[in-house]
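Re: the 174-residue chain
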Amino acid sequence: MTSLDRKSLVSWMGQSLAIEVQFNSQTCIPQLQAVGYTVTRYKFPADSGRKVYLARMIASLFKVEQNILVYLQNVGVFPSSSHRPLLYRLREAWGERRNVEEFPGHLFAAAEIDDVASLLILAYEFFWDCFIIGEGGSLAVYISHDEYYDLIYLDEAGIADFKWKLETWNSKTA
């Protein structure tokens, strides 16, 4: 895992997307809807076990990518439902001791997909905003502290099987 500051993560995303895209000036999230991406929104599961399973499912979407960027934001949005020392201990295990606010980007190699899932689990459990995008740029996921997540994609056919699994799984929670 390599940590990136905001400037580096915007640069990395710009190169990965290989298209001219505007970034939200406050969040540094690319405005992908404006350039032909489709967004499908889903509600968080309430159960912690289901959040873990969902984080693994989402991480698995990116296992074919050479590199995966996980960008954390608002890790202090709900201090009473968070435990930042856990995040810092995890980052230390990856060799990163710098502040997450200054280095919010986490660039993982494909072989580190379990580490991607681990960071997503924390984002779901602690209600942090999180943006995930693979190096190919055709798929991204945005996790919101407002208890929803967006699948952001270019190719419906490439994600149809995953969406079917996700919607089948979601229907079992209703």
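The chain has one domain: 2-166.
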